[in-house]
Design brief:
Helix content is 0%, strand content 63%. The protein is built from no helices and eight strands.
Length: 102
Amino acid sequence: MASGTLGQASLAAITNTTVYTVGATPSVFNVSMNNTSGFPAAVNLAIATISTPTAAEYLEFETVIPPNSVLERGGIVATSGKLVVAYSTIAGVSVNVYGYEG
């Protein structure tokens, strides 16, 4: 059973990125999306079955993070095999998933 940091990624612009895949047991976790650039970033965040989320799987869609700011989602519970998928319109956004498996 893992705990602490479960996944991290620096997002490439205009690319879906799988940051974390839930293991054999359900997970409880938080997601932090940090815009370290000097420009606004429109971001998407999904808990998905595959790396291309459906409309119903988004937790955030085209949410704008101002320059040098953060978007935090907490208390997320996901079942085995689900993917945390993130997207940004610009480079300079990092994603951290931290919590507890099982």
